[in-house]
Amino acid sequence: MQDPKQEITGVITDLTSATSAPALERTINTYFTPDARFLHPLCQTTTRAGILGVYEWYRIMSPNTKAEVLSVVYDKELNVIILEIVQQFRIWFSIFPSAPARLNTRLTLREVKGLYYIAQQEDFYHATDMMALLMAPLVPIVRLILAFAGWVCGVNALLFT
């Protein structure tokens, strides 16, 4: 990328909505370093080939994924981009409808001969957003569990101070 802040939205769109394996491979080979890392709450890999495998499986599981980049923050000094993304991910065999899932993605860039490449991608999800990806109907249960845990923290704070 010559201008990461301007180009990254298109890169994310190409990664998350590729309709063929060759298109996905072309995108990953164009924008990721050979030793790129991918860190996600459910998996991780430390090679560009591994990242291709993750994204290809993602494409197979949810062939009609839609991702919308809501915000791009680029720190040129640190070579880091922070993205806020909302995606609709539905596993093809699931009987449940998709639900929007919000995530923050941190991209560490590496400059090589005036172009910027993704050296590391880290995806961060809130528990309810992760459940929205996996099984959307369970989101209310996760919210109840989190609310209960918050209540327990408040009670414990009162009891132990």
Topology-level CATH name: Nuclear Transport Factor 2, Chain: A
As for the number of domains, it is 1
β-strand percent reads 25-35%
Largest sheet, in brief, is:
6 strands, mixed
Identify the overall geometry.
Answer: globular
Q: Kindly provide the radius of gyration, computed on alpha-carbon positions and rounded to a whole number of angstroms.
A: 18 Å
Strand order of the largest sheet: 2-1-6-5-4-3
Number of strands: 6
Low-pLDDT segments, ≥5 res: none
CA-CA gap between termini: 53 Å
CATH-scheme architecture: Roll
Structural class designation:
alpha+beta
Level-1 CATH class name: Alpha Beta
Following the backbone from N to C, one meets helices and strands in this order, namely HHEEHEEEEHH
The helix content is 40-55%
Per DSSP, the total helix count is: 5
- Mean pLDDT score, rounded? 94
Keywords summarizing the entry:
161 residues; alpha+beta; Nuclear Transport Factor 2, Chain: A; 5 helices
Write the layout of secondary structure elements.
Elements: H1 4-16, H2 21-31, E1 32-39, E2 44-45, H3 48-61, E3 66-75, E4 80-88, E5 100-112, E6 115-125, H4 127-135, H5 139-159
Parallel strand pairs: 1-6
Antiparallel strand pairs: 1-2, 3-4, 4-5, 5-6
Helix pairs in contact: 2-3, 4-5
Notes on the protein architecture:
The chain is α+β, with helices and mostly antiparallel strands. It has a single domain (4-159), classed as Nuclear Transport Factor 2, Chain: A (Roll), CATH 3.10.450.50. It has 5 helices and 6 strands; from the N terminus they run H-H-E-E-H-E-E-E-E-H-H. The chain has a 6-stranded mixed sheet with strand order 2-1-6-5-4-3. A hairpin with a 4-residue loop joins strand 1 (32-39) and strand 2 (44-45). The longest helix is centred in the C-terminal third of the chain and has 21 residues, at 139-159. The mean pLDDT is 94.
